[in-house]
Amino acid sequence: MMKVTGKTKFLGVIGDPVEHSLSPTMQNCALAKLNLDYVYLPLPVKAEGLEKALAGFEAIGLVGFNVTIPHKQNIMPLLNKISAIAQMVGAVNTVWRTDNGWEGTNTDIAGFIAPLQGLKRWQGSTPVILGHGGAARAVVVGCSELGCGDIQVVGRNEEKLLQFYKSWQDTPLQNKVKVHPWRNLSRLLPQADLLVNTTPVGMYPHVDNSPVDRELMTKVKQSAIAYDLIYNPRPTQFLQIAQQQGLQIIDGTEMLVEQGASALEIWVKQSAPVETMREALLAALKR
Ligand code: NAP
Question: pLDDT confidence of 1, banded at 50, 70, 90?
């Protein structure tokens, strides 16, 4: 049972909307487990109120916060320092207060990587990434951090795909990111060591949809890993098809838990109780 006292410190998540965020449940369970006098709040902030909100957070001594849609990019010019990794992704999801002002990073990369560590030798391996939105950017940087070789990104809109490709020019990943129209997917699948769905296809309530159908999935090696960023339902149709094909599967809950654990560790400077966070998240998803 959480006890709020006169000395309780504040953390939170800003977004619009934030009512559906699972982070307060997950983070407050973790704070209670660590026996820390903190509370993590949902903080609804409209786009036009972002600068004022930051000034208010400064005034009340908020320790740090997560950032969700629509502020992940817009917050960047308002911060004093941004990690190189967040700059490469072009989005910040975690902010903390320092003596020199607000600093930001992106823990989605660590979240994405965590369940992949130690599963195989990633050096030089080939990831095939479906979709090129915000989450795909963190996945691209995560694949590079793992040591993967060329990162193959597949999209349905060729204009957006080209924009995505151009966005990596003048970054250390400029020669690694390759883009392909969706019609070339069947040619790419046999090369995949890791197949990641970053599209919302198959997300609740459209649970019977999959970005890769059964026939196409037969082209993927059995030694490959299928990873879906979606955490509702678990597993998605995409992961069910992959599993029936003999592939190892990973769902989006691990990334969600681990990005939260990384953020908590930045704020409270101690190891996060990952198992407690996972249990809290899974219980919340069942509700
Ligand atoms: P986003 O910025 O809107 O990007 C979605 C991408 O999917 C775009 O490239 C979009 O292409 C593509 N797409 C959408 N519908 C498609 C379809 N029917 N066929 C092919 N491509 C399609 O969204 P996001 O923020 O990256 O999030 C994507 C998913 O990841 C969501 O399901 C989200 O819940 C999940 N996610 C999970 C975590 C986690 O921690 N587990 C973290 C972040 C995101 P167009 O531009 O052509 O529409």
Answer: low
